[in-house]
Amino acid sequence: MLTVDFSRFPLAAGDRVLDLGCGAGRHAFECYRRGAQVVALDRNGEEIREVAKWFAAMKEAGEAPAGATATAMEGDALALPFPDDSFDVVIISEVMEHIPDDKGVLAEMVRVLKPGGRIAVTVPRYGPEKICWALSDAYHEVEGGHIRIYRGDELLDRMREAGLKPYGTHHAHGLHSPYWWLKCAFGVGKDGKDAALPVRAYHKLLVWDIMKKPRATRLAEQALNPLIGKSFVAYATKPHAPAAPAVPSSTSAAGEGRA
Questions:
Q1: Within 13 A of 195's CA, how many CA atoms are on the CB side?
Q2: Best CA proximity match to 112, nearest among 76, 146, 144
Q3: With 0-12 CB in 10 A as exposed, 13-18 as middle and 19+ as buried, what is 76?
């Protein structure tokens, strides 16, 4: 289930991509399938080991084109182990709402992104997230949980302050907001057979939708995304630095003085 829309966020074969806070690796896998040179980074070592296994399985199954590469590694989003201007593309999906120093994370992403490079940032949308917080303290008051709710314009302002130039936004996962509202209402800690019947039934619907992608639910989600889409997605570029003004040579300057 992808949050980034690659029809709005072009990715070329050979692009060097950083999936920052990759989690289970969904965006990293898609970039690998598209022929990118992917680095999936997360602070969770257990998830990184699973992502590495999936990369190996994808390579074995021939799911990635020739020239594509994939690396999974542990790392700190506030101290990325890469030189300046290392990546053509950076993706950070559903991560910034967890990190106290979100401005520091943005600064690090801009540092490692090449001038002219592209960045995709996704966070929980303000309205649906506000409902989750109102329904359940347990939804966000957990270790490593959500510590803030972004308004769309607030996130865009922070991206601009970091030196990025936003060029597009949209909302995603309109079918998923009701599921999380149900979980918050009936108990976020209850999963599987322990979950309430409405939660289990809706989860079954979502799994069916993800696996089968029927036209009816695709159309329903398109209609719901602008209204109750669970995620807010923003795309931006890192501008090229303006060219420094030419400095006259001492010889030409002297000549101009004599004129």
A1: 18
A2: 76
A3: exposed
| Separation between Cα atoms, residue 83 and residue 85, nearest integer Å | 6
Cβ neighbours of residue 259 under 8 Å, at least 6 residues apart? Answer: none
Q: For 121, how many CA atoms within 13 A lie in the half-sphere containing its CB? A: 29
Residues for the chain: how many in total? 259
DSSP for residue 101: -
Dig out the tokens for 10 from the structure. Answer: 């072009």
Residue with tokens 């807010």: 232
What does 162-221 look like in DSSP terms, one character per residue?
TT-EEEEEEEE-TTHHHHHHHHHHH-TT--GGGS-HHHHHHHHHHHHHHHH--HHHHHHH
Q: Give the span between the Cα atoms of 35 and 48, in whole angstroms.
A: 20
Put simply, whether the predicted model's pTM sits higher than 0.85 gets the answer yes
**Range scoring the smallest mean pLDDT among 157-166, 192-201, 224-233:** 192-201
Using CA atoms, how far apart are residues 113 and 86, in angstroms rounded to an integer? 6
- For residue 143, pLDDT over 90 is answered with no
CA 228/CA 178 separation, integer angstroms:
9
- Taking the C-alpha atoms of residue 38 and residue 225, their distance in angstroms, rounded to an integer, is 29
In this predicted structure, the answer to whether residue 250 has a pLDDT above a threshold of 90 is no
* pLDDT tens-digit readout, 15-35: 999 999 999 999 999 999 999
Q: Give the model confidence (pLDDT) of 73-107 as tens digits.
A: 999 999 999 999 999 999 999 999 999 999 999 99
- Residues contacting 91, CB < 8 A, separation 6+: 4, 17, 18, 19, 20, 27, 31, 119, 120
Under DSSP, the state recorded for 96 is: G
Local structure of 144: helix, strand or coil? coil
Residue linked to tokens 């999906």: 93
